[in-house]
Amino acid sequence: MATLFNAMLETARLAGVLVGGKTTAQLNADYFYDTNRWEPDGYFNNGTVFILSGSVNLNNTRRVISYKHVNGEFYCETFDGTIVQGTLYNVTNAHREALVSAVNNALVQMGEYVEIEDTATILTGAQELVLPAGVSNVLRIEYAGSRKFRIGNWLEINGKILFGWGFDTAPSEPIRIYYLKSHPQVYNDNDIINPNYNLKRLAWTAAYMYLLDRMQYAGNADDKEQFLLQNAQQMAQRLALQFPVRQLERDPILARY
Fold first, then answer.
1. Tens digit of pLDDT for each residue in 182-208?
2. How far apart are CA 60 and CA 49, in angstroms?
3. pTM of the predicted structure, to 2 decimals
4. Strand (E) or helix (H) holding 108
5. Is residue 237 helix, strand or coil?
6. Contact residues for 56 (Cβ-Cβ < 8 A; gap 6+)
7. Can you count the helices (H) and strands (E) in the chain?
C-alpha cells in the first residue's frame, strides 16, 4: 500500500532534481557521507533525503540541513538511527514541506471518494437519523436489517437524514450509508494513501501542483519551466481518464407525500 513517502519520492522524481547514491561512510544519526557526489557545496541544502535500504531508517525522509562537496557530507535532521555505510538513498533539492503540500493539493484536486458507514442503526418508527461524525454528502442509504432494500425517500439537512415515513422495524436495525469523503491530509512518511488514489496519477498531479507553486513563487516562466509545467498538466489530465477516483451516482430522491 502506497504511503506519503512513495508519493513524495515519485513527485520529486518528476518535478525536481532527484539523484541516487550509496553512503560510503557513517558517523551517527545526523550525518552520512558519499564521496562519489560531485555537486557543489550547498546544492542540497534544505532539500530532502529518502532512505531506500536498511532496517532502522528504511522509507524515512529528512531535511538536509547542509551539504559539503569536499567529503560528500550530508548533515540532516536526526534520523531514528545511524545511517550505516552502504545505505541506498535518493536526495532532491526540493523542500520536504513543499512536496507534502503538493501531494495534499493533488489529493484535493483528484476529488472525493466513496466511503461506506455501516455502524449506524435506526429505531422503530424513526423519521430522522443523526449522521455519525464525519459523514456528509450522502449518496445512498440501504436498510441492512432483517430485510434488505434501498431507501429512496430521504433528505440530508444539517447533519441529519430526514425520512418520508417512520420505519416499521425491529429495534436498532442497521443501515448502510454511502457517502463522499475527502482524503485526509497526510504529513508523516508512513501515512497511508487511500487505494482509490492511483499513485502514478497522484504523482503527476502533485508534480503539476509543485511546479505551479514554484513558478508562482519564483516568478520564473522560462521555456524549461513552461515545458515541465505543461507536460505535468497533460500527464495529470491523461491519467485522470485512466484512473478516476471511484465514484457513485447519487440516488434519486423520490417525491415526498
1. 999 999 999 999 999 999 999 999 999
2. 8
3. 0.87
4. helix 96-110
5. helix
6. 79, 80, 81, 82
7. 4, 15
